């Protein structure tokens, strides 16, 4: 569970017998950029353990580490705001690899010169490297790297050699005798083609690490930690959503403690995917976990909660996203608390396990993810029993050293099914937030003006003969600045018969369409999301809606449509390529009484903070999209009108619609 709970964790740790320190560790000193996290991931991917420490760490604290990496950062080494550090970090005699700002700091510290250049370099550039330098062994003499810098090294210190250049700029320095290396570029990112080889060269060639921090070894370490913290008698409670993190957590606990001592609870709130709760139970039971599955569908549908002194509910009559979330969160707490009471679980006898991952802990920027998502996680963690356990410091987080892909590798190692291990992230409230509930069209004042701006933009960009644009009568959430806000959803549809309502668009036309879709929110600010609407052209404002709430038949309609999309994605082997594919029920009937429409949001991202839609013909085969649309409009799922394909990057559109 990603909710942070530093003090409880600390307390739990003090109760634990220290797990033997791993001698082969790298310290990554964070000079203030987001890149520290990426370096952390890269080092671990190479089976070397590492910790992220602040740049101003006291040198004595570096004693347990065999080598040091200094990360990039936004400042200038000469700036008054340059991050502080202790000179002693350079006097430990350990190998040091300075990256970007880290190289400038290394150069500056040992007496070289760093200057602001007239031109910044930002992007992928070819550089020349000296292949005789240990850092570049096995790397071609010309290679592409990611550079983002305004300052540059203009003179290297005594004892250092220039080992890489971008034009006449120095982008690599080395003092092999003291094991000191620096690069101006970012070897840790994918855009640096041979970056991984360079990281390997430093870790294995220069520092002599053995690469023993493997999934299997780490599994043993995690199991040792669990058994030491929990001791020989107590049990562990784990709430299993069916997501990767909590499932792997349950599997690991089971391996560490055995079936009798792991109390795994799953709640079917009625908004899971088609038959998903059954599949989750089957997958966990297959490896021996005793999963208690509670079907609470009607409890949730009929649930009320108090908001600002008012009773709100039942859930299946609500249209407000906030009220829906609050009822679901509160009901989840109530239901799990009751389940614990019914099972006779006493706070004194158990620990609570949470599937917190390493990025959850590293990422102080997690507030950006979404205020509401935080809210539901807090709810999940906030039952009376959980509060007692937290106050007592009896929380364990066995996955806190793992990144998501490492959790997947561990899940596979533990024998979990491929389906479960590769399950895409799914929101806690499930399909409930993928059904846009409403009792009236979204028609704020000034809507005609927005429609007119859209039409003018279509004309200006030369698309008027090919595409119609239309404001739909719903709003969806998006990212604006640091916050989230609701705004208009726009549908683009095809005018030309040859396009067959969008089904016959070529990859080149899709690419052009994606550019058009991307331009719209940039120019028409009250729009945050744009879709291609398959079928006949729709121009002008759409006013008609189908009144929609979370009634069971409505949820079931989305479950069936979602299943068609998932099946097709699996068939075309797209599940691993696309980070997430929300399938959303829109309350727009497009002339068919009582019907709904479906929006498909294919989303590609590594960090979930930003992302892009998968463009048909580029990241997803056009045939896969056509297959989905044809199946969904063939009557296979009753009561569907139109299908829309979301073409919005994040920002401005969030992954989810509400
Ligand atoms: N339906 C559910 N039944 C039982 N526990 C749940 C359920 N939904 C969420 N939880 C618990 O709340 C935690 C946080 O929920 P959230 O949906 O935010 O998960 P997550 O961070 O994506 O992790 P996961 O991969 O385990 O789903 C889960 O890890 C799980 O412990």
Automatic annotation (TrEMBL):
InterPro entries: Class_I_gatase-like (IPR029062), GATASE (IPR017926), GMP_synth_C (IPR001674), GMP_synth_GATase (IPR004739), GMPS_ATP_PPase_dom (IPR025777), NAD/GMP_synthase (IPR022310), Rossmann-like_a/b/a_fold (IPR014729)
EC number: 6.3.5.2
All residue ranges annotated as the GMPS ATP-PPase domain in the record: 213-423
Pfam families: GATase, GMP_synt_C, NAD_synthase
Record SUPFAM superfamilies: Adenine nucleotide alpha hydrolases-like, Class I glutamine amidotransferase-like, GMP synthetase C-terminal dimerisation domain
PROSITE patterns membership: GATASE_TYPE_1, GMPS_ATP_PPASE
GO cellular component terms given for this protein: cytosol
CDD domains assigned to the protein according to its UniProt record, in alphabetical order: GATase1_GMP_Synthase, GMP_synthase_C
GO molecular function: ATP binding; GMP synthase activity
Ligand binding (ATP): 241-247
Subunit structure: Homodimer.
Name of this chain's protein: GMP synthase (glutamine-hydrolyzing)
Key words, A-Z: ATP-binding, Glutamine amidotransferase, GMP biosynthesis, Ligase, Nucleotide-binding, Purine biosynthesis
Pathway: Purine metabolism; GMP biosynthesis; GMP from XMP (L-Gln route): step 1/1
NCBIfam families: guaA_Nterm, PRK00074.1
């Amino acid at each position: 569970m990603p909710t942070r709970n530093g003090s409880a964790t600390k307390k739990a740790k003090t109760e634990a017998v220290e797990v033997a320190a791993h001698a082969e560790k790298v310290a990554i000193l964070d000079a203030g950029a987001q890149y520290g996290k990426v370096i952390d991931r890269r080092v671990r991917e190479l089976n070397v353990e590492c910790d992220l420490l602040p740049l101003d760490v006291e040198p004595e604290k570096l004693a347990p580490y065999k080598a040091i990496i200094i990360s990039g950062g936004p400042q200038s080494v000469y700036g008054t705001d340059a991050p502080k550090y202790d000179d002693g970090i350079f006097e430990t005699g350990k190998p040091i690899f300075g990256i970007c700002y880290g190289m400038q700091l290394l150069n500056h510290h040992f007496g070289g010169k760093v200057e602001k250049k007239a031109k910044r370099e930002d992007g992928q550039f070819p550089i020349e490297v000296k292949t005789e330098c240990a850092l570049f062994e096995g790397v071609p003499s010309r290679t592409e790297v990611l550079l983002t810098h305004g300052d540059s090294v203009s003179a290297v210190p005594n004892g250092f050699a220039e080992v890489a250049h971008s034009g006449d700029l120095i982008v690599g320095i080395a003092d092999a005798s003291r094991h000191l290396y620096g690069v101006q570029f970012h070897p840790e990112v994918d855009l640096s083609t041979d970056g991984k080889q360079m990281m390997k060269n430093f870790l294995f060639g220069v520092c002599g690490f053995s690469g023993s921090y493997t999934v299997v070894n780490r599994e043993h370490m995690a199991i040792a930690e669990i058994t030491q913290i929990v001791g020989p008698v107590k049990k562990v409670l784990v709430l299993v959503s069916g997501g990767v993190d909590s499932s792997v957590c349950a599997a690991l606990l089971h391996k560490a403690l055995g079936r009798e001592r792991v109390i795994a609870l799953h709640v079917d709130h009625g908004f899971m995917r088609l038959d998903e709760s059954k599949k989750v139970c089957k997958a966990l039971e297959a490896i021996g976990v005793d999963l208690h599955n509670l079907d609470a569908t009607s409890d949730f549908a009929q649930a009320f909660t108090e908001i600002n002194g008012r009773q709100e509910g039942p859930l299946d009559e609500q249209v407000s996203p906030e009220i829906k979330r609050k009822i679901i969160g509160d009901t989840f707490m109530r239901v799990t608390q009751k389940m614990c009471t019914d099972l006779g679980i006493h706070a004194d006898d158990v620990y609570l396990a949470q599937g917190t991952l390493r990025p959850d802990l590293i990422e102080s920027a997690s507030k950006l993810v979404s205020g509401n998502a935080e809210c539901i996680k807090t709810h999940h963690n906030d039952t009376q029993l959980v509060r007692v356990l937290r106050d007592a410091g009896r929380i364990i987080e066995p996955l806190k050293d793992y990144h998501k892909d490492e959790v997947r590798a561990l899940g596979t190692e533990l024998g979990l099914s491929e389906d479960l291990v590769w399950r895409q992230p799914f929101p806690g409230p499930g399909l409930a937030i993928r059904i846009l509930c409403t009792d009236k069209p979204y028609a704020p004042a000034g809507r005609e003006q927005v429609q007119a701006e859209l039409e003018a933009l279509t004309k200006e960009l030369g698309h008027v003969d090919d595409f119609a644009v239309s404001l739909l009568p719903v709003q969806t959430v998006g990212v604006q600045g640091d916050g989230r806000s609701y705004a208009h959803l726009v549908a683009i549809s095809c005018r030309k018969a040859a396009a067959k309502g969008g089904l016959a668009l070529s990859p080149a036309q899709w690419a052009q369409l994606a550019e058009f879709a991307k331009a719209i929110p940039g120019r028409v600010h009250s729009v945050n999301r744009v879709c291609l609407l398959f079928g006949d052209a729709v121009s002008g404002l759409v006013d008609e809606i189908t009144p929609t709430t979370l009634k069971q038949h409505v949820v079931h309609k989305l479950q069936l449509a979602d299943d068609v999309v998932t099946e097709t994605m699996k068939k075309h082997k797209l599940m691993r390529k696309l980070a997430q594919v929300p399938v959303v029920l829109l309350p727009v009937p497009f002339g068919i009484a009582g019907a709904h429409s479906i929006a498909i949001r294919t989303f590609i991202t590594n960090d979930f903070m930003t992302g892009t839609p998968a463009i048909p013909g580029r990241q997803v085969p056009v045939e896969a999209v056509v297959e989905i649309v044809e199946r969904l409009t063939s009557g296979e799922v009753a009561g569907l009108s139109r299908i829309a394909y979301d073409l919005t990057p994040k920002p401005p559109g969030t992954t989810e619609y509400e």
